[in-house]
């Protein structure tokens, strides 16, 4: 049984379809973030808030310099260090995840708990789906335990084609052979 088959057995996330109402995702993420910061007594400053909003513009992974380009029109004093400091804060609070293989960032939809994750990264549309994949991560924890290895963080990143890009490429192929 491969990783992907294992994940499908856990009903932990739905891949964001292109048609879904993304404004609901944004509203939810921002309100969870505001609530969490309030509970933890940490400041979601305007710049941190703005960066979080920009990251949540879509489910695609965003690079730090793209965030800088987007923030300059609203805050022309913003420097790379401003963006990096805001990103560090959001990472620390678990509101976003770093996609190591792309050196980019994506919003976390389950940020009220600390967690390891499986990230499915679409190489065609850049969409990232986060799955909690308890079975996979549980098996991995067992493996690490056997090796006597203490992991700092566990993120599994898998590159491939998401459901909608896969469907589109199939349609294109079918049309090409007709
Ligand atoms: Zn969405
Ligand atoms: Zn997460
Ligand atoms: Zn895709």
TrEMBL record:
<keyword id="KW-0238">DNA-binding</keyword>
<dbReference type="InterPro" id="IPR036390">
    <property type="entry name" value="WH_DNA-bd_sf"/>
</dbReference>
<keyword id="KW-0678">Repressor</keyword>
<comment type="similarity">
    <text>Belongs to the Fur family.</text>
</comment>
<dbReference type="InterPro" id="IPR036388">
    <property type="entry name" value="WH-like_DNA-bd_sf"/>
</dbReference>
<dbReference type="InterPro" id="IPR043135">
    <property type="entry name" value="Fur_C"/>
</dbReference>
<keyword id="KW-0862">Zinc</keyword>
<keyword id="KW-0805">Transcription regulation</keyword>
<keyword id="KW-0804">Transcription</keyword>
<protein>
    <submittedName>
        <fullName>Transcriptional repressor</fullName>
    </submittedName>
</protein>
<dbReference type="Pfam" id="PF01475">
    <property type="entry name" value="FUR"/>
</dbReference>
<dbReference type="InterPro" id="IPR002481">
    <property type="entry name" value="FUR"/>
</dbReference>
């Amino acid at each position: 049984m491969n990783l992907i088959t294992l994940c499908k057995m856990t009903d932990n996330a739905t891949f964001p379809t292109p048609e879904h109402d993304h404004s609901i995702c944004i509203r939810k993420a921002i309100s969870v973030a505001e609530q969490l910061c309030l509970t933890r007594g940490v400041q979601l400053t305007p710049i941190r808030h703005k960066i979080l909003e920009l990251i949540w513009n879509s489910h695609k992974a965003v690079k730090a310099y793209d965030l800088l380009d987007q923030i300059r029109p609203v805050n022309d004093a913003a420097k790379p260090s401003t963006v990096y400091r805001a990103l560090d804060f959001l990472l620390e609070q678990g509101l976003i995840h770093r996609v190591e293989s792309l050196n980019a960032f994506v919003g976390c939809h389950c940020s009220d708990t600390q967690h390891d994750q499986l990230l499915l990264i679409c190489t065609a549309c850049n969409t990232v789906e986060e799955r909690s994949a308890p079975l996979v991560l549980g098996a991995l924890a067992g493996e690490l335990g056997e090796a006597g290895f203490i992991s700092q963080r566990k993120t599994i990143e898998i590159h491939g084609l998401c459901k909608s890009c896969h469907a589109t490429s199939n349609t294109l192929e079918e049309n090409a052979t007709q």
